[in-house]
Specification:
Blueprint: H1 5-16, E1 20-24, E2 29-31, H2 32-48, E3 56-60, H3 65-77, E4 80-83, H4 90-100, E5 104-107, H5 112-122, E6 127-129, H6 137-144, E7 159-164, E8 174-178, H7 179-193, E9 200-203, H8 210-223, E10 226-229, H9 235-241, E11 247-250, H10 252-259, E12 274-277, H11 284-294, E13 299-304, E14 308-312, E15 326-327, E16 332-336, E17 350-355, E18 362-363, H12 367-373, E19 380-388, E20 394-399, E21 404-406, E22 409-411, H13 413-421, E23 426-436, E24 440-449, H14 457-464, E25 476-479, H15 493-499
Parallel strand pairs: 1-10, 3-4, 3-5, 5-6, 9-10, 9-11, 11-12, 12-13, 24-25
Antiparallel strand pairs: 1-2, 7-8, 8-18, 13-14, 14-15, 16-17, 17-19, 19-20, 21-22, 23-24
Helix pairs in contact: 1-2, 1-8, 2-3, 2-6, 4-5, 7-8, 10-11
Amino acid sequence: MSHNLFESFAERMSARGDADFIVTREGRRYSYAQALAASERLAGTLASLGVKPGDRVAVQVDKSPEAILLYLACLRIGGAYLPLNTGYTSTEIDYFLGDAEPALYVCRPAAADEAERVAREAGCPQVVTLGTQGDGRLMELAEQAEPMESIESRDENDLAAILYTSGTTGRSKGAMLTHRNLASNAQALVEAWRFDANDRLIHALPIFHTHGLFVACNVVLMSGAAMLFMPKFDIDAVLDEIPRGTALMGVPTYYTRLLADERLTPELARNMRLFTSGSAPLTADTHTEFERRTGHAILERYGMTETGMNTSNPYDGARIAGTVGLPLPGVEIQLVDRETGANLPTGETGMLKVRGPNVFVGYWRMPEKTAEELGEDGFFVTGDLAKIDDKGYVQIVGRDKDLVISGGYNVYPKEVEQAIDEMDGVLESAVIGVPHPDLGEGVTAVVVPNDGATIDESQVIAALRDRLARYKQPKRVFFIDELPRNTMGKVQKNQLRKQFDAIYRPG
């Protein structure tokens, strides 16, 4: 029996027929029937370019409906889809092509010459282009290709995709995701979030990562819903579409931008049934204010490249601000001491581990790293520090690598950040540890003030004096216009650590 994820999609696509699958604001449309036919032509194109079952297909293109159809074609033919961040440089692409050894590299038309050079040096045999308007060499070939009507048989543990981690420290790792990983997670989310064929998802996320591709698109495909496909998050476009949508999947930045616009009202959002947030922590203030302004409580969930989604606040029931909810069906979690590995009781802070059909099978060509982070018992060490309350809700405290050890005491940045963020005049903050001649690491706060606010270092330190234990209080506070973030809105604390690395050094 085959377990190709595309078989589940194809069944629903056939049933939905002429119903909308992808619609753009410019008026472009693919029905489910049209998308299914296009996947046949594109799969035939991939085969003509030499792609075989198990081969990797590397894709660095701008967001378009055809990029999703290419993903479906790759699944159909049994290939492993490898989406690459559109912001990656040629040097970074050279690494990914050399490491993954794809049979095909799909790039933007404007980047064709440079892509050919990089692919040639990396040993990638084929390069084709794909544009945002159904243009490019790939679509030209598809018009002439013999459609591939069959679906390649795949085992549930065969690779469906490889996603490289952000690589903020050390060498980027390719997380190997199987057909079982993606199928189980999509089905769990459809059930947990009550998606069905009547839904219309406002899709403003990038599609080169888990959130925009394997959460948003796979949930739509598994449920037969429709997507309004936007090139990026545009506040005017999103506000215009909210009355016609039923769901929005976003990152915290989306919601803070919506809250800053007076057009966001309960009346505007009356037809919406679900707003979800992920990829970065959502502040309690944003959660509370959004519910006050719209009548909708944002549903925050927690996932990562290696696992897809792990936990979610409930669709029915309390969506508790500052938490990422409960384990999804089939997902197990453990909280352990980061030194001894011993299980910790409720309320303690420890390392979060997860196990389930959603958890990846390892890192591409990195057996040692796989063994280090994915135990023989199937539990994956997430690298996230968390607490679990008496109701089972998970609260992410911070990343293990972000833990500050000052004077022998552990300081969890999120606790300090929350205290600072609640101050008048503060928009947001990031707390880091940088080398300190006496303490090992000095707790350091980097603050973004609200527009027009006058706030200084002494005020922040004074406000925390009675709020936090002394060892948790920042030794220095710096102010910047905005925090550095990656494409998914996560604060890049490694950049801040580099920027402020020398502040406690003599001279």
